[in-house]
Amino acid sequence: MTYSKAFLLGLLMLLVSACSSMGSGNKPRTPDNLCSIFSQFPNWQISANAAQKKWHIDQAINMAFIRHESGFKATARPPRKKLLGIFPGHHLSSAYGYPQAINGTWALYQQLTGYSEAQRTNFNDAIDFVGWYNSRSVRLNKIRPSDAYNLYLAYHEGNGGFAKKSYLAKPWLLKVAKNVANQAERYRSQLAFCSPQS
Predict the structure, then answer these.
(1) What is the end-to-end Cα distance of the chain in Å, rounded?
(2) CB 150 within 8 A of CB 172
(3) How far apart, in whole angstroms, are the C-alpha atoms of residue 73 and residue 121?
């Protein structure tokens, strides 16, 4: 191998390593501690607070939804189907990004809010979407704004599915909703100890 090829190979490996380390820093180090999340990502605190004021849904609930849906991974997707039990096929749904919003619901959000450039991989847009969706659930299904359990069931099943009580046929989902509600309560308790926005 010539010197120039070795140099280029080394440079390429360095760039790949740098990109990997940059990507790993885009997720919270301690995702179950809201104060730590906001300390690591101050702009997220600003966005979460803005969504709360705009949509009248507690930021602890909105953050708990994103925590569960994507683990705060910007490019999260559902698993793929397996072709012939081996090869990766299509994703199980079009859910994508921080909020795991499906294509149709995201398009509706863009249309009704006028945020045509909103991206599911942008945290500010994602937390606004979750607040918007939860506010619709409050209005359409008369769910209390503080009821994280039922808000999550409506988020997962869609407001039409929630109205039909489709979640009753999914005992596993009821457990998930309880876990999300518990996470929201933990986040809410932690908020009292978080540093105020700068």
Answers:
(1) 54
(2) no
(3) 8
